[in-house]
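Class, discuss our next protein.
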Amino acid sequence: MFKVIVKSVFAGSSCLALAAAPALAQVPGPVVYTVVVPGNEFGSPAFLAELLGTLEAAKAFCRATGDSALQVDCLSERLEAAADTIPEGTDYDEVRGVLQDTSERLKRLARQNRDPERGRVTVASAADPGERTRRPLTPVSAAAQTAVNLEAARILEEAATVLLRSAETARDRQTQYAQIAAAIDSNKVLLRS
């Protein structure tokens, strides 16, 4: 009847102090919350909106680096982060797998074509310095950048195609997978600049 997804969130006491709960419950430590997803319905409109927002934010974050040599690995890192937000055992397992595979392929592409003159760098958002890449990014050499960007665009297209094809057999997934595929595919615009 219901799928239950349980995640643990570690919150500091300052976050817990904001909760309206008895004083004994305000001890720092893990907080467990439960998300109930109705059975016989694919996905959640709220989760879809969150995922689409994450994919759009990936494009904005990578664009804001201002460094075209970092775009491919930045997309890789952001897609990996998006995949990590999808809980296992949900209707979005396939999406998580496609995002992880795409991320890995983009990371490998960047590393195979790295600029030997530059080191890897961690990038922070200018708008929110607390938002930063979870790992250092590999810059692509200027000589290989055009070919790498073409290959990266092809990898993103393949990811979108995989999602669209897998949704053909499941009517309840078609609309949501089409939206996710479009969001992934829209990241190609970074590779043209």
Observations:
- Confidence is low (pLDDT under 50) at residues 1-27, 33-41.
- Strands lie at 2-11, 29-38.
- The CA atoms of residues 79 and 154 lie 15 Å apart.
- The chain has six helices and two strands.
